[in-house]
Design goal:
Number of strands: 5
Number of domains: 1
Shape: globular
Strand content: 25-35%
CATH topology: Alpha-Beta Plaits
Number of helices: 4
CATH class: Alpha Beta
Bound molecules: flavin mononucleotide
Largest sheet: 5 strands, mixed
Structural class: alpha+beta
Strand order of the largest sheet: 4-1-3-2-5
Amino acid sequence: MKNDLYQLIYLSHSEICGNDSTIREEIEQILAISRQNNRAANITGALMFNRNCFAQVLEGTHHQIQQTFERIQCDPRHSNVAILDFDLTPARRFSEWFMAYVGENSDTRQAFEQIQKTPAFDPHQLMGERIYDLLHTHLHAAENYNL
Ligand SMILES: Cc1cc2nc3c(=O)[nH]c(=O)nc-3n(C[C@H](O)[C@H](O)[C@H](O)COP(=O)(O)O)c2cc1C
């Protein structure tokens, strides 16, 4: 059977204003609706909030990712949505999470700063791969991380 498993990763700029508790509430709402919708669409992935940016990985069929991403792109809670990668993948890397969350702490901040600083021939592709790795590495910590 033809493989129809895709991964999409993007970066965006957060437009959520307010203090830490407002930001936290908005992110909780985003995660709640994401987990509900993604479960129904069989989309897995992870969301990171860091240095006023979002990075998100979505995994699923081309059709389901496209439908979900169309909604996400129009969401006024972020802007400058830049796709870093949208391609076939042999297997899910975030198969246990309808939407895992990786929040900001000193480790993830440092890792994300490093990614942003690293020069590359193809910045989008390399950044995509490095963000995948960052999210994957910090997932287990993220599961225990209280928003
Ligand atoms: C950074 C960010 C990530 C989001 N991720 C998802 C997601 O993975 N799945 C999803 O269904 N909605 C996600 N949303 C929420 C959607 O933009 C949208 O509000 C939600 O799907 C409900 O859409 P509807 O009101 O058209 O039904 C995300 C929003 C933001 C700002």
